[in-house]
Amino acid sequence: MDEQINNEKIFKELAVFNAAAAIIIANRPLLDWESLTLEVNVLTDAPAIGPTTIPLHEHPRYELSFMHIGEMKYVCDNRTITINRDNRRFFFMAPTVLHHRFTNSPLSVITGFQFHLHPVDDFGSNFIARLPQLLQKNGYCFESGENFASFLPLLRQEIMQQRPFWREKAKLLIQLFLTSFFQHYFADELKILKASDQVNLNSRNTHLIETIKTVIELHINRPSSLEDIAGDMGISVRQLDRIFRKTMPMSLGQYIIQRKIESAKKMLQLDKMLVKDAAQALGYKDTSYFCRLFRKATGCSPLQFVQSNNMDIHHKRPESK
Q1: pLDDT tens across 175-212, in order?
Q2: Span 262-278, mean pLDDT?
Q3: Is the pLDDT of residue 303 over 50?
Q4: Strand 99-103 relative to strand 107-119: parallel, antiparallel, unpaired?
Q5: Who wins on pLDDT, 50 or 262?
Q6: pLDDT by residue (tens digit) across 39-82?
Q7: Is residue 273 predicted with pLDDT exceeding 70?
Q8: Residue 232 pLDDT greater than 50, yes or no
Q9: Contacts of 109 (CB under 8 A, 6+ apart)
Q10: Taking 80 as the threshold, does the pLDDT of residue 118 lie above it?
């Protein structure tokens, strides 16, 4: 009877934890590292009254699990990995790895993260390509130290007490834990990959920047957005801007405006275009906005630029204010 009452209490606490966890990751806390981003999709306590066996299956995301109560045995690649609160082990598995798990303990509760990893640059792509091999080589088992062991009690404390700002503190704990985990176990691997890629990095970046500049020139006379340019490159706007900032002393948006102003000068000075026509040719429907950009970039208005270059402006119509 006492055991039944105790189990009911545990299951009520698990329900509170899982409901709160769903709230915490509703916005999918994103960890933005130098070469990777990590997107948390699932955080859950999964109870099982033993003996239980979960048949062979796979997940579309990375899984990082540890035990809250009892003991669990994972079987994958003909290996058996035992995790419990005493041995303080983590089970860490890449997506689409076939596995099954079982337990003989009366009650087991496994706490698990599921998440996606996204590359930000070549280093991140190389690391993600290597990670499944690293996990397999390590037997999907990682030993936990005191710092990692203290994470779960702190997280549960914030969730169960629900003091002011508990959601924010819980998110920070999750981010700190996952960052510390990757820093502890995989920082050396990332350093090795960076060192091996550094030789060709400058030449790759130079080639990529020249390609970006070429695409920008193709868009210079169109009302194109950064999304349009990134789409032509086959990468995200975020990746595009990161690559550009690493090599150039300005943002991508600033560079595009600079190139448009240079083209505008040519149109006004050599092609003798009207200010309104030059603005429209460069994709600016609002002539006044174009004039403000021009003044900010050059220190003078388009009309003043024309006058300062001794051009015959009598045929020009008044500049739009």
Answers
A1: 888 988 898 888 888 777 666 655 444 555 666 777 77
A2: 87
A3: yes
A4: unpaired
A5: 262
A6: 999 999 999 888 888 899 998 999 999 888 999 999 998 899 99
A7: yes
A8: yes
A9: 10, 14, 45, 46, 47, 48, 67, 68, 69, 70
A10: yes
Residue 263 token pair:
């083209």
Give the count of beta carbons closer than 10 Å to the beta carbon of residue 5: 9
Per-residue pLDDT at 135 exceeds 80: yes
- Among residues 94, 96, 55, 50, the alpha carbon closest in space to that of 74 is found at 55
Which of 118, 120, 115, 62 is CA-nearest to residue 91? 62
Transcribe 298-310 into DSSP letters. HSS-HHHHHHHTT
- Residue 157: CB partners within 8 Å, gap ≥ 6? none
Alpha-carbon distance of 241 to 212, in angstroms, equals 10
Helix H segments across the chain?
Answer: 2-24, 122-137, 146-149, 151-161, 166-219, 226-233, 237-247, 252-269, 275-281, 287-298, 302-308
Amino acid at 16: V
Confidence at 253, pLDDT banded by 50, 70, 90: confident
Query: What per-residue string of b and e applies to 141-157 under the rule 16 or more CB within 10 Å gives b?
Result: bbebeeebeebbeebbe
Domains of the chain from N-terminus onward: 2-192 (2.60.120.10), 253-308 (1.10.10.60)
Both structure tokens of 142:
């990682």
Candidates 63, 50, 97, 59; CA nearest to 78 is: 97
| C-alpha to C-alpha distance for 105 and 189, rounded to whole angstroms | 37
Which pair of structure tokens corresponds to residue 229?
A: 């340019």
* Per-residue DSSP letter, 60: S
CA distances (Å), origin 64, targets 24, 61, 105, 178, 221 = 17, 10, 21, 10, 50
User: What is the model's pTM?
Assistant: 0.60
Provide the residue count of the chain.
321
**Kind of pairing between the strands at 52-57 and 99-103:** antiparallel
